[in-house]
Amino acid sequence: MSVFGLWSSWRGEVSDFRTHDLREESGQSFKGESAAERVQKDDEGPSERLRRESLISDASLRSVASRLAFSPACVLLQYNLLYQELKRFSRNGEYFCKELMTIFQQRSELEISYAKGMQKLAGRLIRASKGTDRSSSTYNAWCQVSNEMYAIADVHRALGNAFHQEAVVELRQALDEHNKRKRPLDTAVEKVGKRFIANWNEQLKVKKKLIGLTREHEALFSFVENNKNICTEKEKQKMLNRLTKSAELQARVDEEYFSINVEALQVRVKWENTLKSCYQIIQEVEKHRIETLFSILSKYGLHMSNFGQTLTHCQNNINQVIRTADMEGDIAALVEETSVTAVDNKAEFLIADYFEEDRKTVMGPERRRDAVTAKLQRLESHIAKTRKDHEGLEKILKTSSENPSAKDDLSTEESEQLLDETTLKLDLLEVTHCKLSAVIAELEGKPKHLHRFSDSVTKWKDKDCEHSTVQLPRPVKTKKRPLRSRQATRRSVMYKGPVKNGPSEEAQPPGDPGPARRRADTNSSVGSDEGEAEDMASVGRCRALYDFTSERDDELRMKEGDTIDIFQKGDDGWWFGALNGQRGHFPSTYVEELPVFTVTESSNA
């Protein structure tokens, strides 16, 4: 038998073996192939062969993808949990508003027989309030209103007309506006989520395909190398042509796999950003809902005050309820309860694995080193470009913080998102580079270099393929928007209570205290002189939320739970205060301001 015939026979056996494995994975029965069929496969071109084998591999990969489609990395996303929790909160508020609108509509129609109808609606209002937040003063105020509704059975017919115009219509408009804003949110989240899952499954599919082609190519290469001295020139040329086609096909699939792996980053970030955007929209809707309820509550009290001496007792009770209601406090509580920040949250990412990393492969050490080196060079070029982009974004944010007059909130937020995306991309590229560098070190007999994510990489076997994932820190940060003033509403004749200012600044998790250096330049005159600091009066107190340490002498070191006296608040996010006799600057995002009660406020209360 000639060398070429020997190679053709061996080639058919390899194809049989690979087809047998793939069909076993997909649950199909395997039947042997005739010699004629094997010869026909040998004469196929690369495109026909790829199309034929894809029909087999698709069935096997479909079963693998179905097992990985709902892995923890896909479904257990912290942003998604927060979004679903806020949706549940919003559904309760929407249900309450619908019930409240129905209540006022029926009340306006039943004023002529008010005594009987009011008792029924008061009970209904109590039941509708059970699903609301008991800690909200606005919702609790409506619970107290239901108690007064039992006592005003003889109310005037004009009151019904007023309720229809100022309560039913306004609530209907608010509900329509809220539904219009929330309707496309679930579709957007589902669309991006499906794309993320599809990308995850596509990575696994192309990876298996690449490893199979690489294994077959290396086996073919070894066969050619071992038999090149005993074959004719014609047979040698034909085998070299097949080897070239195999290498080209392998290179195309390798590039496709790398592109899909890089695309996974963009899809993941887009999913998180979509969830964050939908989260903020629903939060704004809930803020507006509380404002609307508070406005209607104030108007309700105003009409009650005009009914005369017969309703004086009811009017006083309603006024007392409204005095205890604090719209800004409720919105602040809403933001505080729903704006959860998970600093230690970690996300799992699938990183690139290559055939050359396997020490048991048929590739020689030199070829393994050359192949891994080529991939390292590609990674290094991407790392250099990404690091350059990262530095550029940091400069943009630094310039924006140093020039508040030229600061654009929208562009700054976009820059922060791009910086977060670039940081994540750089981390993933560095993890892959570190993994491949370890392979080179092993081949050259050198010690492996440790990386900051070395302990976060996990590997597992899936039949004849090895997968690697890395756990990267992905803190969940939902921004707290500044509360809008509603002083005009508080000047209503029915509201006489004190105004409480809720927290309006964003409580960020501890990060890199970079603004400390800028603060030293832009705010150097604030509290720099120790003699002037002695004359400063305290403007408030705050409690530390996180530990803060610094090497600078003019910065205050604090631990979680410490109470700090505030002397001055800077516009750049740094305050000046004292703790245990030590004075210095500290970041305002690391503390929570404590309420200050004066003698006047205590007497008014």
From TrEMBL:
Protein transport listed as a keyword: no
CDD domains: SH3_Nostrin
Boundaries of every F-BAR domain copy: 68-330
Alphabetized PANTHER family for the sequence: NOSTRIN, ISOFORM H, PROLINE-SERINE-THREONINE PHOSPHATASE INTERACTING PROTEIN 1
Main location: cytoplasm
Region entry Disordered, spans: 24-49, 390-415, 462-536
Coiled-coil ranges per UniProt: none
Compositional bias ranges of the Basic and acidic residues kind: 34-49
Biased composition annotated in UniProt, kind: Basic residues: 476-489
GO terms under cellular component: cytoplasm; organelle; plasma membrane
InterPro entries the UniProt entry points to: AH/BAR_dom_sf, F_BAR_dom, FCH_dom, HR1_TOCA, Nostrin_SH3, SH3-like_dom_sf, SH3_domain
Localization per Swiss-Prot or TrEMBL: Cytoplasm, Cytoskeleton
Record's function text: Induces bone resorption, acting probably through a signaling cascade which results in the secretion of factor(s) enhancing osteoclast formation and activity.
Keyword terms: ANK repeat, Coiled coil, Cytoplasm, Cytoskeleton, Phosphoprotein, SH3 domain
Gene name linked to the record: NOSTRIN
Domain SH3: 537-596
Organism: Denticeps clupeoides
This protein's name: Osteoclast-stimulating factor 1
